[in-house]
Design a protein that fits this description.
This protein has 394 residues and is mainly β. It is 7% helix and 46% strand. It is globular, with a radius of gyration of 21 Å. The two termini are 23 Å apart.
């Protein structure tokens, strides 16, 4: 029985990239005009949370630029408080689709501004959540300029069309695809690709596997990227399911560019879903949106440091729900500590320290203590059980 120390990495739930096929509307009324308001936000677990007040109750919404429409969950009272507004065809981050209800929310107050007539899709939760809904890109599409500044812990919103667009920074024109922003990113060897800027994802960068294979940088003599291994598995989850199993490539990029600003030591993986830049970009600078000009402005904190080292951890292990909703190892990096400990793709966690594990949501809420050793009892696809010792270090 092997014992070691490693950091357990949960898969980032991709609660994003919802596309609205028809009846999409981003119009809403504002309680004030010609305003610029600053809202204090929370930066937790690599995501942005915004305080929202509805009918005198306080809620926490995840700011998700990968969601074309705001979202409330079917299990929350917000879903029943809204008035029915039809249905939409929704696509999640894995490419799965479903027709979901749409509600018009009661007046929603963000900071000192009350928005009336905002619509939200009603979605099932994917795994476990620490929030009540999603604020989607419909706020920007509806005419609000927005600046996200996690270093200062603030979100600035304004209805002034030129509030941020004259500021200095990397000026990235975005195009809307399914009502969410796609920017051009230079990845390796001069390869350029349009990809989603998605604050609903915790990852820094992921690239679609088919896109990666179609260019295949291994055919070129370049030194700004390297493969760190390949495996088979799945890691992305959306509201309608988990991505299909397939080959995953583990990468390190050393010249990832937004405009003229470069990042190095970016650890990334391929995905069966769409290519995207995630919320992990935000600690490196502010991001502003100017909807009238379809402009995304990135203002790096270390503007003179290029390339800027990211040094994010490679995804070593990802858990997804199995057919019964239990935590299953969807992906494990063969060069990582979890693989050395004995985790394998397809292993299902049945018990921790002799206590049954019944669902991925329960697993995510387990509350592992730093420095304490845990015994995982897992069963592989052949029905064989074994134990893995793990100590949380972060």
């Amino acid at each position: 029985m092997r014992r070691a120390v490693f950091t357990l990495c949960f898969v980032a739930l991709c609660l994003s990239a919802f596309s609205q096929g028809w009846r999409y509307r981003a119009d809403f009324a504002r309680s004030v005009h010609d305003f610029c308001d600053t809202i204090f936000i929370s930066w937790e677990h690599g995501q942005v949370f915004v305080p929202v007040s509805i009918d005198g109750h306080n809620y926490r919404f995840l700011l998700d630029t990968g969601a074309g429409q705001s979202v409330v969950f079917s299990s929350s009272q917000l879903a029943s408080q809204g008035s029915q507004a039809g249905t939409l065809l929704a696509h999640d981050a894995t490419g799965a689709t479903d027709t979901v209800p749409v509600v018009t929310l009661p007046p929603m107050t963000i900071g000192n501004v009350t928005l009336s007539g905002c619509r939200a899709t009603v979605q099932r939760t994917a795994g476990t959540t620490r929030f009540d809904g999603l604020l989607g890109f419909d706020l920007v599409n509806g005419g609000l300029s927005m600046k996200i500044d996690v270093a200062q812990g603030i979100l600035i919103i304004s209805d002034r069309p030129h509030q941020f667009c004259r500021e200095e920074g990397q000026r990235l024109r975005y195009k809307l695809n399914y009502h969410v922003p796609y920017i051009e990113v230079a990845t390796y060897g001069g390869h350029r690709e349009r990809m989603l800027f998605d604050t609903g994802s915790r990852q820094f960068f992921s690239i679609n596997k088919d896109s990666y294979d179609s260019w295949n940088p291994s055919r070129h003599d370049i030194d700004d990227y390297s493969e760190q291994g390949r495996s088979t598995g799945r890691h992305s989850m959306g509201h309608h399911g988990t991505e299909p199993e397939g080959e995953v490539v583990f990468l390190e990029l050393n010249n990832l560019r937004l405009g003229k600003y470069a990042f190095s030591r970016v650890h990334a993986i391929t995905t069966q879903g769409g290519s995207h830049i995630g919320a992990a970009l935000l600690p490196f600078g502010t991001v502003s949106f100017c909807p009238q000009h379809r402009l995304m402005l990135f203002q790096p904190l270390a503007a003179e440091t290029q390339p800027c080292p990211v040094d994010n951890r490679q995804m070593e292990i990802a858990f997804v729900p199995d057919s019964q909703g239990r935590p299953e190892v969807g992906l494990v990096w063969q060069q990582g500590e979890p693989y050395r400990l004995g985790f394998r793709q397809g292993d299902v966690v049945e018990m921790i320290d002799g206590r049954p594990v019944t669902s991925l949501a329960q697993f995510a809420r387990w509350g592992f203590e730093r420095g304490r050793e845990y015994t995982f009892t897992v069963v592989n696809r052949q029905g064989q059980r074994h134990e893995v010792k793990w100590v949380r270090v972060k």
